[in-house]
């Protein structure tokens, strides 16, 4: 990436993970807990399994949409713990589509945009769901593109996803940064040659065996301040 003397068009590309990084998943986990006989203690088990089985799909060459995997894993979690899964008129995909942004996000995205970076969403959600999510959270206007892994039928952190996204934007990986609140996501992007920034949301940690990210920040706005302070440095 380049220094502040460059025009906005020559700044690098910032790719953002969506779920948990930009959007607060608390209401999603609360909904899942209610479906699981009000066992809120099982929501982290469910969400971790959701990420696990999305990776299983990629490794085995299978493909189902993220929302469909979420429903399937909810059924698995209920069966595992001997729970009768409560019926609901609202599918998980509808809850996913209406998640709010974290309080820091709009301010941080605005600051990074004003610094001249191109902002791109790169998500495991389907394109249709991702667009609904960003629009519902009132942050869609900050992004020049929304890229979904469904174009490849592979989930992050498969390296082909990052390589595809970088190629699509027409910039070398060294001029691109992946920003995420997941250690596995920043680890994958780093191995694909991208710069990375880890957003230390509550409960999120880095994977100790993965390459270290270039930046660690408590939230998106804090990251924008860190980047803005690097005047004249290559980030």
UniProtKB/TrEMBL annotation:
Q: What does this protein do?
A: Catalyzes the hydrolytic dehalogenation of small (S)-2-haloalkanoic acids to yield the corresponding (R)-2-hydroxyalkanoic acids.
Task: Give the top-rank taxon of the lineage listed in the UniProt record for this protein.
Answer: Bacteria
Mind telling me which PANTHER family this protein's record contains? HALOACID DEHALOGENASE, TYPE II (AFU_ORTHOLOGUE AFUA_2G07750)-RELATED (PTHR43316:SF3), HYDROLASE, HALOACID DELAHOGENASE-RELATED (PTHR43316)
Q: What InterPro entries does the record tag this protein with?
A: 2-HAD, HAD-like_sf, HAD-SF_hydro_IA, HAD_sf, PGP-like_dom2, S-2-haloacid_dehalogenase
Q: What is this protein called?
A: (S)-2-haloacid dehalogenase
Signal sequence interval, chain numbering? none
Q: What does the similarity note say?
A: Belongs to the HAD-like hydrolase superfamily. S-2-haloalkanoic acid dehalogenase family.
Q: What class of enzyme is it?
A: hydrolase
Q: Which Gene3D superfamilies match?
A: HAD superfamily/HAD-like, Putative phosphatase, domain 2
Could you list this entry's UniProt keywords, alphabetically sorted: Hydrolase, Metal-binding
GO molecular function term, any single one: (S)-2-haloacid dehalogenase activity
Give EC number(s), comma-separated: 3.8.1.2
